């Protein structure tokens, strides 16, 4: 039976063997000469009867493919375990579905969009019937993760910061019913960070700051050895991320337009900002403290090493000092470009021929290309719930009201916000890579 632990062990062994090959093949100028590989390493890792450089490169490519396949298996097994844990946590929060046997009992409620909540809100309809006097605010008890997932279904119908009748739908005979969306950075890091819920304004947890094992051999009748363990309370404050958009009275009454707006613009803006904060937030209120600025994470400078080497050294630090299994590399797309284009001394592309897409993996781990941080720096980390988690504090609040002189201008502002805290339980499970 294939288990996550067995796959991890096999993955670590093959990863270490392949690392020996590249270590021995590296030349003084940072390139790779596969003729430098020792006979013992060649035989134990790559096999016998390999003398031609191209044949050696092909065999290395095969070994790398095996490592990538193991990495994908490990990710699938980890995802399955994470899904099971998430399901269990949701059951605790939401309660189990009654087992009455009827169809209504067996079906779970469908996740509604914020626009649908807004359209069905009785207080909102009554407010419109009264002529929409002054402002109104209300909130919905929903899970941020459900809303973030719903926000990915882009259904926006308008693309201006201020929606007026001129931005509404004209007859389709005059133009296409869609629009060309402005280019924007996608979500890049949130998908690999475990997410949970909290009901507090800050997340407090205990960190084992001293761990001294005194276990030792003892003669008959001798005194027992003694260990020392010391704990320290740590705190990560919940921070708020917001977004808003002014809307004219005329457009405000178009409920379908509001539904598309709330789903596709406000929620994406909040989620994209959260994606930035969890990586590079400076920790000064009201900012979250992103992974790159957490005190205690390790550092590995590139120096004269090739880029793949420095990331492997960072992985080793995560394993040896952090006592964690590295799961992902994070680097800027231009830095990854340099890795993808690496060649041997005789011009063979290490990450595959230009005619192939090539895997977004290095040393068997997935590479997350993230633009939140400038090129020249990256990260290696163990993105496991034991070492890092993002905690959501509240549901998504939606409010509508007047700001400044909007009453006299026939406008209102719609706003949305969420609150979250990032906790890095073991900073040493992450290593900052610099000087790329």
Overall description:
Helix 1 runs antiparallel to helix 3, helix 5 (114-120) packs across helix 9 and helix 7 (144-151) packs across helix 9 (255-280). This protein has 436 residues and is an alpha+beta fold. The protein contains twelve helices and 14 strands. Residues 93-106 and 155-160 have low confidence and may be disordered. Strand 8 and strand 9 form a beta hairpin. Among the domains are: 1-94; 114-194 and 236-287 and 393-418, no CATH class.
Summarize the structure.
With 436 residues, this protein is α+β, with helices and mostly antiparallel strands. The protein has 12 helices and 14 strands.
Number of H- or I-type helical stretches: 12
| Unreliable residue runs | 93-106, 155-160
* Sheet/helix structural class: alpha+beta
- What is the chain-wise order of helices and strands? HHHHHHEHEEEEHHEHEHEEEEEHEE
Q: Rg from C-alpha positions?
A: 27 Å
Helix content: 25-40%
Oligomeric nature of the chains:
single chain
**Gap from first CA to last CA:** 41 Å
* Morphology call: globular
Total number of strands? 14
Strand content: 15-25%
Biggest pleated-sheet summary: 6 strands, mixed
Q: What is the overall pLDDT average?
A: 80
Task: Write the SSE topology.
Blueprint: H1 4-25, H2 39-46, H3 53-94, H4 103-106, H5 114-120, H6 122-129, E1 136-139, H7 144-151, E2 195-197, E3 202-212, E4 228-237, E5 239-248, H8 249-252, H9 255-280, E6 298-301, H10 307-320, E7 328-331, H11 333-340, E8 361-362, E9 365-369, E10 377-381, E11 388-392, E12 397-401, H12 406-409, E13 411-424, E14 430-434
Parallel strand pairs: 2-11, 6-14, 7-9
Antiparallel strand pairs: 1-12, 3-4, 5-13, 7-10, 8-9, 10-14, 11-13, 12-13
Helix pairs in contact: 1-3, 5-9, 7-9
